[in-house]
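Section 3.1 - Work completed
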Amino acid sequence: MTTDPTLDVPPRRRVAWFLLFGALGAVVGLLPWLTSGPFLPLQNLEDTDDVSRLGPFVLLPYSQYEITTIIVLLVVGGAAAGIIARAQRSRPGILRGLATVGGLALVQLVAIVQTALATWNVLQERFESIVYLVLLTAVAVLAFVVSLFVASSVSTAPRAGAGVALSIGALATGMWVGAWMTLPFGAEAPFSAVLPLTFFLGPVLVGAAIAWTGVDTVGRVVAGVVGLALVWVVPPLATALASAAGTRVLASDLPEMADYGVNVFVSALTQPELGLRSIGVTIAVAVVGLVLRRMMARRRTAATA
């Protein structure tokens, strides 16, 4: 029988450790951007004509062309914080989740506020600048909320709830790896040949999450089904967001941009060769993981007997 190494630690110190785990997870999520030379990308509404200028240091890549990157950096931070916290052999409970979410929230809120203020300082004094900054910040805040949900669920929820949150984090991680292969290098990314393979990383990780969760209760089966649905829906949604936000000619017409995004989403969602391929990879990995898990359980039972 293994003993819990954290039970002898005073409660306040345990809380401090989980605050640190949350903050550490947030930093892990930001790493692809922080290692790229984290200076504000050139803005279309910037109050300067010097296109060669080096922007201010920012903790998030505020740009309409990096919408999905902003989301991914924050959501992966939540997943990392939750995984780090759950991996500790301490008694699960609301205190652990609150401390983890608190450390995560502190770092990510600082990142959002710092980036928004730095971006505002370089934009032209126009109404369009206000709309632009508000929309980017709204995206960041929405991703922040999802990040908190993922962190709290992974760190403290039963396996079914944690499995759903892990699936969200897994799909974000696939895109996060792709961002780390491109952001530090720009157009001269040395990994461009293998970059398409990151498309399958998310489904593989979701399959692993389903295997870890198991399918031996109704709740866990539902979590697996939700994971498969996310594999089908999230990539087209990311494509639609990137396509709509990155279309400069639609920047001044938000209803038209939204309509274009919906059309791209529906088109990508209804391409069976993409969705079925991803779901097939997820199911294959989940089946292999579940079989291996059952074999290991039988071996442990036999060894105990």
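Second construct:
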Amino acid sequence: MISVVIPTRNRLESLNRVLDSLYKQALKPKEIIIIDSSDQAFTTKDLITPPNTINLILERSTPSVCEQRNIGIKLSSNPIILLSDDDLVFEEEYTLTLYDYLKKNPSKKAVSGIILEKNTKDEWAYANEISDVKLIYNWFFGLSIFSDLSKSKRGNILVNRIKTKLSNKGNQISKAGWPIFVNWNKDENDFPFFSLMGAMIRKPEEDLFDPVFVFNGIGDNYDACIKLGFNITILKKTKAFHHKEITNRISPKEGFYYRTSALHYILLNNSNFSSSNRLFLLWSLIGVLIPNFLKMNTEMIKYNLILIFRILFKKNLYQQETLNNIST
């Protein structure tokens, strides 16, 4: 009934943790497909032994999380696939709940539980708290807002108007292309796109992930969600825990650079967006640039100026000639 696809690289301990979590599911998968690109290849002897009912498949690949996922999806023998990162732990009812949802909603292509991460208070949380000042600033510049406004306190007249406006519009994409996800008040919440690290999907006929996103797969979820209809349901009571592994993870500053480059690539190459969206993306980068100038954060200033230049002259990082220059 269910296949699980896990791309992995140099994270054996973390991989075994997610496997243990999958072996304990109330609805166990029929097969788990691991696509390994580690420097030193794993063998099945390195992995914890599955129950007899689960077929464990281990394949090798070159390092590219998008290619690894595509390979795993092609190898899967079931029409329903759980996409899993190698640093998650799932609640025992996770696969059962998601599978039942897709069965009851045949028009839906993708569903996910809520992905919890440790916040600054060392608590498992699904959305960041946002100050009123940052809310106004991000709204003005069209930057990301990822916060549960139903839990936030009332502010002054301006703040309350912005909160009401955002809540009424619902979960959306800003004109710059950044996510504005503020409504989490239902058990089932729809989002244009969401991280697919713990999503269950119907098996696509074509490659879901664009291998152009070679840098740690940053940007792949946005692109894949567009292919899935830009409509992902999140089941708030169904939880997975993201044990954010350090191995293979780039710095937040580099992540911003590659994520923005990926967004620019999507704005250039997808019919859902136009030149006006790219202008708003430039405006949003001015919003990022201002506080970094005030802090004299030279690395972020450099990244922003490079991004602004590339957007102005349509020289995207992910264009083939740029990728070739980087590789050489």
